[in-house]
């Protein structure tokens, strides 16, 4: 057995993966069986180790005993704190905001992307656009949210391959007018480039394929409050342009928030589009 392997085994005993470290047990009794966000803190007050969310904080925190990595994180933690919310939506929103603000060591998701891109249908032609160029919250005919132009282009290539679309009509390659593309000769293009199918048929297949990735434009003139209930707790989540502005307990508090539209937020859209568009939650227009 190598010295490195022996050292690793001394560092981590598998049996310890199912036992909470003694110094954290004082925090477990006070954890609520309610929705919210929990935080594993290190010695630093600035950067926590991990931020998570659950509809049952106590149950979720107690479940952090499944892997060697989680066991190591627990040993590194010095205390556990929590923040209650009115339900799962509030927990998701607060978790995303805290992760972005605090950048915990063990969270690798929900971080700000450097270049948010989408596929925009402009006069029937797909064009890759950046959130720096247009307002994603207010622009119709956007499809997909991508972290880079390359990933957006790859999605368009995948659609082309799956639907036998012509790369030239997708703007992905140049082609002499009326001549079949190379992929047509390979049976990978249905022939819109050379009259074997109509441009209308080609366009219908493209739009159908894009629909599952459609980004819905912000459906309100200004900020709204999404009301969420859990037992006796009620929260109003204030949102504008799919950007989460904060959660309050009353409309008076909502009015005090700065509800001016912010830049489009991908995580806010992913969390909020379902609840807002479903019609299952009370929506209060604030502007």
UniProtKB/TrEMBL annotation:
Keywords: DNA damage, DNA excision, DNA repair, Excision nuclease, Hydrolase, SOS response. GO terms for cellular component: excinuclease repair complex. The gene is cho. Transmembrane segments: none annotated. SMART domains: GIYc. The lineage of its organism: Bacteria, Pseudomonadati, Pseudomonadota, Gammaproteobacteria, Enterobacterales. GO terms for biological process: nucleotide-excision repair; SOS response. GO terms for molecular function: hydrolase activity; nuclease activity. InterPro entries: GIY-YIG_endonuc, GIY-YIG_endonuc_sf, GIY-YIG_UvrC_Cho, UvrABC_protein_C. SUPFAM superfamilies: GIY-YIG endonuclease. This is Excinuclease cho. Residues 33-108 form the GIY-YIG domain. The keyword Methyltransferase does not apply. It comes from the Bacteria. The keyword RNA-binding does not apply.
């Amino acid at each position: 057995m190598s010295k490195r392997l022996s050292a690793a085994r001394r560092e981590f005993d598998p049996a310890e993966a199912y036992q909470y470290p003694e110094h954290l047990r004082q925090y477990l009794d006070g954890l609520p069986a309610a929705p919210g966000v929990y935080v594993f803190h290190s010695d630093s007050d600035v950067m926590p180790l991990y931020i998570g969310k659950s509809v049952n904080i106590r149950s979720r925190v107690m479940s952090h005993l499944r892997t060697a990595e989680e066991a190591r994180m627990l040993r590194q933690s010095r205390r556990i704190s929590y923040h209650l919310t009115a339900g799962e939506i509030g927990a998701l929103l607060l978790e995303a905001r805290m992760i972005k603000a605090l950048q915990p060591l063990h969270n690798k998701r929900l971080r700000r992307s450097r270049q948010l891109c989408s596929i925009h249908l402009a006069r029937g032609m797909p064009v890759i656009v950046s959130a720096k160029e247009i307002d994603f919250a207010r622009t119709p005919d956007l499809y997909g949210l991508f972290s880079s132009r390359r990933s957006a282009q790859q999605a368009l290539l995948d659609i082309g391959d799956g639907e036998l679309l012509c790369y030239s009509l997708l703007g992905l390659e140049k082609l002499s007018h009326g001549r079949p593309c190379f992929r047509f000769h390979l049976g990978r293009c249905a022939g819109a480039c050379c009259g074997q199918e109509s441009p209308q048929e080609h366009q219908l297949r493209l739009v159908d394929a894009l629909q599952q990735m459609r980004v819905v434009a912000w459906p309100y003139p200004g900020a709204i409050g999404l009301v969420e209930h859990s037992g006796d707790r009620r929260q109003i989540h204030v949102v504008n342009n799919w950007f989460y502005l904060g959660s309050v307990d009353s409309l008076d508090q909502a009015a005090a928030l700065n509800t001016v539209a912010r830049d489009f937020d991908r995580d806010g859209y992913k969390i909020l589009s379902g609840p807002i568009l479903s019609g299952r939650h009370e929506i209060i227009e604030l502007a």
